[in-house]
Write a structure and sequence with these properties.
single chain; Aldehyde Oxidoreductase, domain 3; 2 domains; 12 strands; alpha/beta
Length: 278
Amino acid sequence: MLRLLIEPIVRTALIEDLGRAGDITSEAIVPRDAVAEAEIVARQPGVLAGLDAALLAFELADPGLRIEPLRADGAGISRGDIVARIGGGAWGALAAERTALNFLCRMSGIATATRKLADAIAGSKAKIICTRKTTPGLRALEKEAVRLGGGANHRFGLDDAMLIKDNHIAIAGGVRPALERARQHAGHLVKIELEVDTLDQLAEALAVGVDAVLLDNMTPQTMRRAVEMVDGRAVTEASGRITVETAAEIAATGVDLISSGWITHSAPILDLGLDIAT
């Protein structure tokens, strides 16, 4: 990812951790001129992501550190793999350690969870996509992690595209008025997607015209019927109860996209650690 995008995020994280006085533990224990040789090591197998942010944390903490990436974001890693080496001033390495690992473990966990879902639907036409259920301030990194894991991105924010959900429909007074108002407001490059819970709502949306439909919490049988009703006139997106166990059955309905919130808001971290040679 472009340094221009991630540097403010990494700086903020370092400032949060270093606080007002810096690393007082290292100041007390580690000589100012001490040097260290360290390795970032995988404790679990998975998909690597967030390495650019992690290594930037070390660089910002101490520009004099020697930083050597050994694996690339998106690579599959095994337990015991060394993904990077850090050498130079011990203070800088210790000051950046937790911030770097927070980025690396979090993003690698998201990439690994995405890869599991993508593997579960391999052979179908469907794609796994993420949602806006991301950690505040980390959306760009988390959505990149989804891509590195073999998924694709839904909209990045409320200004990307129109997604008319149940609350919008309730306030507008129904599917038709919601869609008609959206069409009057949207620019020629803005796509309109509508969330539907029932086949009746879907029929009404198709009569008005829509670019995409989000089929929310439908059973596979109902979803299959919905895909048949759409018949290529709109992009179909499945949402709700998406797990590794259910993804293949949902993909088999013929939907174009399968959106998952848990790959960004609840994916377990992938354990990586920093080992300093003694």
